[in-house]
Amino acid sequence: MSMLWVCGVDEAGRGPLVGAVVAGAVVLNPDKPIDGLKDSKKLTAAKRDFLYEQILENAKAWGVGEASPAEIDQINILQATMLAMRRAIEDLSIRLGAWPEKALIDGNRCPELPIAAEAIIKGDAKEPAISAASIIAKVTRDRQMMRLHQQHPEYGFAQHMGYPTEAHFAALKQYGACSEHRRSFSPVQKVLESLSS
Question: How far is it, in rounded angstroms, from Cα 43 to Cα 197?
Fold first, then answer.
């Protein structure tokens, strides 16, 4: 009897003003259960990093996909999120050697896929595979932001991870936008307009 492979899918980085939106996709291995999986936002950074390594080691397959700031500006954040999710599942399917039979998507809508898909609101708290995907997405994106912080320390990305905080707005007003800022996001647009006027 063939095993039914179901992948969980989640994203990180819809709300920030900078960087890619990143999606994770995970097929868990029933023979290698991972303790402590939950919504990545409810975990400490250290616990996320620990579980990230556990997922890479023990999951049947995992994948990462992203959409760049330029793609977000071109097609909007919702479509870019769907694109990142599809890319994550495609990446996973390469490692799995086949498409999974079904995708469980965190949220209220699914990307266009050649397989069955089900959207689950608050899925990262209900489905362990989605929890695992949320951890993969969050850790991957946070590490990207730490690298971006090293390139542009003036924005303080290590502290706010690109989210719209007072410190981030102050840095935007002082330094303008860097190449990774999402220019289609209205807070970035407003700051840039105020600088050019």
Answer: 43
Average pLDDT over every residue of 17-31? 97
CA torsion through residues 181, 142, 163, 24, sign? positive
Distances (CA, A) of 144 to 13, 41, 108, 148: 11, 17, 26, 6
| Chain position carrying tokens 């994203």 | 11
Q: Which one, of 100, 117, 83, lies nearest residue 26 by Cα?
A: 100
Structural tokens at position 62: 């995992």
- Distance in angstroms (rounded) separating the CA atoms of residues 61 and 157: 31
Instruction: Count CB-CB contacts under 10 A for residue 47.
Output: 14
8 A C-beta contact, residue 8 and residue 92: no
Is the overall model pTM greater than 0.90, yes or no?
yes
Helix (H, G, I), strand (E, B) or coil at 114: coil
